[in-house]
Design a protein that fits this description.
The chain has about 70 residues and is an all-alpha fold. Helix content is about 55%, strand content about 0%. It has helices at about 10-20, 25-40, 55-65. The longest helix has 15 residues, at about 25-40. It starts with 8 loop residues before the first helix and ends with a helix. About 0% of the residues are buried.
Length: about 70
Amino acid sequence: MNSNLPPDWYQTQAELAAQELDYDLHLAACESAIKDGIAASLQPMPEPVRDNSVYNFNAILDGLLD
């Protein structure tokens, strides 16, 4: 704990955060906002490298046996 902070700093921060909450917001809107936030933070999955991957496993094994 940082001793440079006033004793009521955490309580003040919690009260400020609570003031920013929209208690009238419908649950579905909250869920949608959360899902949008998570989706925006995710990177798209890269396309698999077909020449050297499990998608071409039989050909890789055949090449090892040749």
